[in-house]
Amino acid sequence: MKKVMGYAGSIGAIILGLIMFVVGYALQEDSFGYTFRPPYTPYEMLVLFFKFGGVILLILGVVMLVLLIVANRYVSQNIKEMHNGPTEFLTCPVCHCKTTPDSAECPNCHYQFKEQNRK
Ligand SMILES: [Zn+2]
Fold first, then answer.
1. Span of 27-36, 73-82, 105-114 with lowest mean pLDDT
2. Residue 118, pLDDT score
3. What pLDDT digit, counting tens, does each position of 48-92 carry?
4. Distance, CA 106 to ligand 1 centroid (Å)?
5. Predicted TM-score (pTM) above 0.70
6. CA 55 to ligand 1 centroid distance, Å
7. CA distance 20 to 82
8. What is the largest CA-CA distance in the chain?
9. How many angstroms separate the alpha carbon of residue 78 from the centre of ligand 1?
10. What separation in Å is there between the alpha carbon of 104 and the centre of ligand 1?
11. Which positions ≥6 away from 104 have C-beta within 8 Å?
12. Per-domain residue ranges for the chain?
């Protein structure tokens, strides 16, 4: 659930960044008489904020998405390794501690497993 939120957030940032950049770019193209050279008028500052804010959001979104994909791949590998380990466990009837099926005694309370308890 948290993972999906992260993906949605980074994709949202990319889309918002793109929209902001396009709006800023379109505003700048439509602005006659504005030089976009310092000192900036409030309108020019707003247009530049949209353009550069959009680019920054876009980059942040892409970086977040890449990090999420890398993290996701790493976690999947770990889970895969866990599944390759022993899948059957022997549960101690005394302390309910789990151990490998070939154990002769419980690693926690040293209860001696009987032959019929083993699978
Ligand atoms: Zn035990």
1. 73-82
2. 46
3. 999 999 999 999 999 999 998 888 887 776 666 666 665 678 889
4. 5
5. no
6. 60
7. 44
8. 92
9. 28
10. 11
11. 112, 113
12. 2-84, 86-119
Question: Which of 32-36, 72-76, 81-85, 94-98 is modeled with the greatest confidence?
Answer: 94-98
The set of residues, in sequence order, having a beta carbon less than 8 Å from that of 58 and lying 6+ positions away, is: 13, 14, 17, 18, 21
Total residue count of the chain as it appears in this document = 119
**Residue 102 is encoded by which pair of tokens?**
């070939």
DSSP states of 36-88: --SSPPHHHHHHHHHHHHHHHHHHHHHHHHHHHHHHHHHHHHHHHHHHHS---
Q: Which tokens go with 108?
A: 């926690």
Residue type, 11: I
Which protein residues have their CB within 5 A of the ion that is ligand 1?
A: 92, 94-95, 97, 106, 108-109, 111
| CA 116 to ligand 1 center in whole angstroms | 16
d(CA 54, CA 64): 15
